[in-house]
Amino acid sequence: MPNQPKTPMKSFRIPEDLYRAALEKARLEGKSLTDIVRESLESYLSQR
Asked: CB burial class (10 A; 0-12, 13-18, 19+) of residue 21?
C-alpha cells in the first residue's frame, strides 16, 4: 500500500496451513494478508 503511512511491524505465530489458506484467499480477492488481518481484527473488536 504505497500511499498509506507506515505502521509498526508485529509478529505472531500461526499454523502453516491456516497461513497458506489465508494467503491464497487474500490473493484471490486482490488483497494483502495485512488487509485480511486488519479487517479480521476490526471485526473482532467491533463485536460485543
From this structure: exposed
Q: Which domain holds residue 24?
A: 16-46
Cα(41)–Cα(44) distance, integer angstroms: 5
Domain count, the chain: 1
Q: What are the pLDDT tens digits along the chain (48 aa)?
A: 566 678 888 999 999 999 999 999 999 999 999 999 999 999 999 998
Contact present, 1 and 32 (Cβ < 8 Å): yes
Tell me the residue length of the chain.
Answer: 48
Within a domain: 3: no
Whole-model pTM: value is 0.75
